[in-house]
Write a structure and sequence with these properties.
Radius of gyration: 20 Å
Distance between the termini: 29 Å
Number of strands: 0
CATH superfamily: MFS general substrate transporter like domains
Shape: globular
Structural class: mainly alpha
CATH topology: Growth Hormone, Chain: A
CATH architecture: Up-down Bundle
CATH class: Mainly Alpha
Largest sheet: none
Number of domains: 1
Length: 403
């Protein structure tokens, strides 16, 4: 068994990097949905909101299924669901058909949210729990390198054939369905497993609840900010640049952001031990800076200076995105009972989706009547109000790492 776990741990970062999201999707999502599917900003945000509602409603059943079929089968089910999502989003032409694809997409990652628990169990089995953050970061580094290459090619591939990037995404999902069969999990002592009701009660301590709440705010700010800043950039550029050049320029901006994502994955892996005591506050301040730059850049209409300023704000999202995810996963598992890891992993993913739902819904309402800049003013205010939570989570994280 030990040899299988060692092999699984070596494969894990590559599996995690390839299955962290739909390849090409992050690079072309807004362009694909606006140009190919002809959806409005409000429709795009509602796709996220509605699909998340179904995910929240169905999570108790998902949690029961995970406990019934086990962690390994859960990630297999998740990867197959992701494959189905990519097919549905690609080939359905109407709003409701794409919405079904979005629902499969959300459920896929709800089942897959358990993969970091498998890694944690395997490292604990080998007596190397302290390497969790490094393994997670290696996986996100692989993902960021792949998406860097994709962002360089996505604009050209999209202009050759609007559907070609999604065809490649489907093929990568097929590869993930093959690769997941090599992931194994160390044996768990079932006698130490709590009952379902007791497990839920034990999992949600005050510290865990506060971390989940802060992660809900931060991750939804990043997700909504990233999605809508691309739309904001696209809209501003379309005022003085033709459509084909907008696609290429936006792809270049995303490519540059991916370079910074790779660099910051490497940098944060090196300096994590030195900054982790103040990391929640650092993340919060980065978000405030990002929203401020995007709003400031919007003041320069039909001007390359404004596009560059807004692009810097967008790049900040990508630079800290993987750090945020790996950081929250680490401090959550550090501060909860090992018997409740499965529950907390699902709650973490669910918290992110609830945050996305709330913010996407609010932004949909704002953008239904008002320009997109008002949505970013709201996001900036929310990021400022999150500072007290950041300070409290810093204290919890520091106590957890000492334990």
């Amino acid at each position: 068994m030990k040899n299988k776990i060692l092999i699984s741990n070596k494969i894990y970062p590559y599996y995690y990097g390839l299955s962290l999201d739909l390849m090409f999707w992050a690079a072309i999502s807004t362009i694909f949905l606006t140009i190919v599917k002809k959806f409005s900003v409000s429709q795009i945000n509602s796709l996220t909101s509605i699909s998340i509602v179904t995910c929240v409603i169905g999570y108790p059943l998902v949690l029961k299924i995970i406990k019934k079929i086990g962690n390994i089968n859960s990630i297999k089910f998740g990867n197959v669901s992701l494959l189905l999502a990519s097919i549905l989003i690609t080939f359905f032409k109407n709003y409701h058909g794409v919405l079904i694809g979005f629902i499969f997409y959300q459920y896929a990652f709800l089942f897959k949210s358990i993969d970091n628990v498998i890694l944690r169990n395997n490292l604990k089995y080998l007596g190397k729990e302290e390497l969790f953050f490094k393994y997670q970061t290696k996986g996100t580094l692989i993902y960021s390198i792949l998406t860097l290459i994709i962002s360089l090619l996505s604009g050209m591939i999209f202009n050759i054939n609007n559907y070609l990037p999604m065809y490649i995404s489907i093929l990568i999902c097929v590869l993930n369905c093959i690769l997941m069969n090599f992931i194994k999990e160390a044996p768990i002592d079932n006698n130490n497993k709590l009952g379902e009701k007791e497990n839920k009660f034990k999992a949600i301590t005050k510290s865990i609840l506060l971390i989940l709440l802060f992660s809900l705010i931060v991750y939804s700010l990043i997700d909504c900010g990233q999605m809508n800043s691309k739309l904001f950039l696209q809209d501003n550029m379309s005022k003085f640049i033709n459509e084909k050049k907008v696609v290429l320029y936006l792809s270049f901006i995303i490519f540059v952001s991916r370079i910074f994502r790779v660099l910051f994955n490497i940098i944060f892996n090196k300096i994590y031990e030195y900054i982790k005591r103040k990391l929640s506050l650092i993340i919060n301040l980065c978000l405030i800076l990002s929203f401020s730059l995007i709003l400031f850049g919007n003041l320069f209409q039909k001007n390359i200076t404004g596009i560059i300023t807004m692009s810097i704000g967008f790049i900040i999202y990508l630079s800290i995105r993987d750090l945020v995810d790996n950081y929250f996963r680490t401090i959550l598992l550090d501060n909860c009972d090992p018997k409740t890891h499965d529950d907390v992993a699902v709650y973490y993913y669910l918290a992110r989706k609830i945050g996305d739902f709330i913010l996407s819904g609010i932004i949909s309402i704002i953008t239904f009547k008002l320009p997109l800049k008002y949505a970013f003013i709201f996001l900036l205010i929310l990021s400022v109000l999150a500072i007290p939570f950041a300070l409290k989570v810093n204290n919890i994280a520091n106590k957890g790492s000492e334990n």
